[in-house]
Amino acid sequence: MFSSIRLGDSYLSLFDLYQLRLPVELVTLSGCSTGLNVVSSGDEIVGLVRGLICAGAQSTLLTLWDVQDGSTSVFMKSFYQFLASGRNKAEALRDAVLCLRASHPHPYYWAPFVLSGKVFNA
C-alpha cells in the first residue's frame, strides 16, 4: 500500500490510486522499477499495476527494473509511433522491443517493459 510515484513535490500512493477514478485506455510509467509488485497476505499481488487497473486504466505499460534513460527514450518513441500507426498495444510493444533489441542486444535494455490489462483492441 506504500508503493508510490513521485510527482513533483508530492507522491501518488497505491492507496491514493484506489480512491481515484482514471478511465483511460493506457497508463505508461517509463521510470525505474514502476512495475514491481509485492505478494501480500492472502497471496494477493499488490503494486502500482493493480492500483492503476483498479482506478480504471484499461492497461498499463511499466518497467520491471531500473532502466537506462537513453534506451528507454528510444523504446518509448518507437512504441508510440507503432501505436499511432494502428498496431494494437501488444504489437506495438513487440515491434518496439525488436527495434531496440537491434541496437541494444542485451536484455537489460529491452526486456524490462511489461504490458498488463487489456492489450488488444476490441
What does this protein look like?
It is a single chain. This protein is of the alpha+beta class. The protein contains 5 helices and 7 strands; from the N terminus they run ββαβββαβαααβ. The chain has a 3-stranded mixed sheet, with helices on both faces. The protein has a two-stranded antiparallel ribbon with strand order 1-2. A two-stranded antiparallel ribbon has the order 4-5. Helix 3 packs across helix 4 (89-103). The chain is globular, with a radius of gyration of 15 Å. The mean pLDDT is 83.
Characteristic terms for this protein:
122 residues, alpha+beta, 3-stranded mixed sheet, two-stranded antiparallel sheet, 5 helices, 7 strands, 40% helix
* Terminal Cα span: 32 Å
* Poorly predicted parts: none
User: Based on CA inertia axes, which overall geometry fits?
Assistant: globular
* Secondary structure tally: strands: 7
Radius of gyration: 15 Å
Largest sheet: 3 strands, mixed
Q: Mean pLDDT across all residues, rounded?
A: 83
Number of helical stretches of at least 4 residues: 5
- The chain-level structural class is alpha+beta
Helix content: 40-55%
Taken in chain order, the helices and strands follow as EEHEEEHEHHHE
| Spatial strand order of the main sheet | 3-6-7
Strand composition percent? 15-25%
